[in-house]
Amino acid sequence: GNKRNSFIGHERYINREPSYTTMAHETRILDMFFDWCVDKSYLQRERRPEVYNPITIKQEGSNYMLRGYFTADEMMKVRAKLAGKARKKKHSSRNNAVLVHKYKKLNAWLLFSTAVMARPQEIKKMTFGMVKRVKIEYPPTQDQIEAHEWKVIAGRAKRNSKPEGNTRWITEIILPASISKIKPDRTQKGRVIIPFNGVKCWERIHEDWAKTWTEFYGREPNANDLLFPAYGKDKVNKPADMNRLFTKFLDEPDVDLRYDAQGRPRGSYALRKYSISVALSEGSSIVAVSANSGSTIATLQKYYIKNTARDYVAELVRDRNEITKRIKFKDE
Asked: Which residues contact 80 (CB under 8 A, 6 or more apart)?
């Protein structure tokens, strides 16, 4: 938030009514101050003043409309450009080693960000130990159940044994509450994140990126090491400013994708918007996306879903005879 207009000076707020959220913070701070005064016996409890928020209506925010987003074609161009730069071992610059590491880190971060739907400030504090590989089992299908029954009849399986379903390796990220977004009521809640690309996400982090990480920092990463630390072997415990690196990459002449078609600047948050929008447009359940991304269903419906009833014709218009067969009437 350095040098944002909202923090530069009081001139911006002259003759303007403060927002509901601003006054809610001020109210909370004053409440805490008066509670402290009572605890320290500087103020009698019965004389403690009640503090109320003078702004009673929360107006609709507009910050989300100032953020740019990527179309599918633009994202493919960004990925192709970045992957090409990450493969190069020599750049036309005196700081060649810095650029080689920068582009490799950016490429790993971009692929990870678009797969996990997490907020940039959450990814910033993620460690290697949070990204796990998990084996899941699917319930057996009807064909698998029947095949198992024939095995029992043929004596190739025990009578009391159960049929096995298919198994699959996936990536599971355990996001603790301590690094999740702070809600308006000042609470934090952790969650489990399942990247859409299965075990590929784990492989990219623990095999591909961990190898580059080891080459640069001189040792293998442990469970508590940050995924994307700052440049410099003495800064392994300091998170890198990936948003700054990403925006500088988008500003490069051969990329030139810093702004979208409406002239809005793109940054690291645009990757989250892209991954959520793609998941919803491809038919993922809004409940599943809400649990994975940490956004409420109301937020997803308001800012991410652009579909209309026409996009759900196959679900809304069905064969009436088929529907009638499944309806149980009272006289039945």
From this structure: none
Residues constituting the chain: 332
Angle, in degrees to the nearest 10, between helices 96-116 and 72-87: 140
Helix, strand, coil distribution of the chain in percent, nearest 5: 50, 10, 40
- Which are the contacts of 115, defined by CB distance < 8 A and separation ≥ 6? 195, 196, 197, 200, 201, 275
Contact between residue 223 and residue 131 where contact means Cβ atoms under 8 Å apart: no
Q: How many CA atoms lie within 13 A of 55 on its CB side?
A: 15
Q: Give Dmax (Cα) for the chain.
A: 87
Please identify which residue in the block is written with the tokens 């379903």: 165
Determine contact, residues 299/291, Cβ cutoff 8 Å.
Answer: no
What residue has token string 């009272």?
330
Task: For CA atoms 286, 291, 297, 299, give the dihedral sign.
Answer: negative
pLDDT in tens, the chain (332 residues): 444 444 445 565 667 777 777 788 889 899 999 999 999 999 999 999 999 888 877 655 555 556 788 988 999 999 999 999 998 877 766 677 788 889 999 999 999 999 999 999 999 999 999 999 998 887 788 888 888 788 888 888 787 787 777 888 999 999 999 988 877 667 788 899 999 988 999 999 999 999 999 999 989 999 999 999 998 878 888 999 999 999 999 999 999 999 988 888 899 999 999 999 888 888 888 999 999 999 889 888 887 776 667 766 776 776 556 555 555 544 54
Task: Please tell me what DSSP assigns to residue 329.
Answer: -
Distance CA 296, CA 123 (A): 19
